[in-house]
User: What shape does this take?
Amino acid sequence: MSTIEQQEPDETETETETETAVESPGDRRRREKADRAVEDEARRETEEAADEFDEAVDLKVFRYDPEVQGKEEPRFDDFTVPFHRGMTVLDALIYSRDHYDSSLTFRHSCRQAVCGSDALFINGRQRLACKTQIADLDGDTIRVEPLPHQEVVKDLVVDMEHFYEQMHAVEPYFDADELPDDEMEEQRQSRENREKIKMSTRCIWCGACMSSCNIAAGDNEYLGPAAINKAYRFAMDEREGENRKQERLRIVEQEHGVWRCQTQFSCTEVCPKDIPLTEHIQELKRESVKNNLKFW
Ligand code: FES
Assistant: This one.
């Protein structure tokens, strides 16, 4: 004969029900929010894990080390790197260095397109490695080389000394004709003037423009787009004054200055900060002509 057993109430359930019953609306919202955060985190980790293990990217990286026997000849090394969404070329290089070859050498610092230290020749074009999304590149293999037209020191590191010399040749600092007597006094700039020089102030000295310029490749003394842009930035700044502007124009008018530019726009195309470099060079040419026109 079957009997229906009287089930004893579960103590745990009873306690939970009691707790739920006394949970305030505020506590409930907080609990639900915490639960959602845990669920979101778990989902994100699952997605990332899937991304990491499902896909990989192949890198072909330029290698050269003149100081190590057997590595003096330039060559390319291949690295296969797990891919995840949002991965940049710099991330892939760091992975390759950390997991395959700790001697792989390249520059980087800020990782947010500010310091300008990781300009490289990626898939045949000058780009910042930290700003270049792997997902945006075409082809199965990503080819990474040092900046062309620069002397290679090791692997992806080039000698930037000449580039810095050209930059310093245009005196890249604010230097007004007159300063206010009170050094705490503001030197005001009109909104229009600020707008005019705005883009030129964005330069991060990465050297991508110089590396892309055919003229700079053939004329080592050419000031180059970055230096001329820097000259533009100060020559057009109304706060410096007319005398200083004339001095700045004399620097860029020289034989290896603005007149060497053949308006090829390669510098403008590769600039990672979208500075209209060629336009700035052309404007300095116009200023130079106006400056030298004489009416008798
Ligand atoms: Fe600084 Fe790329 S690491 S610009």
In short: The chain is about 40% helix and 10% strand.
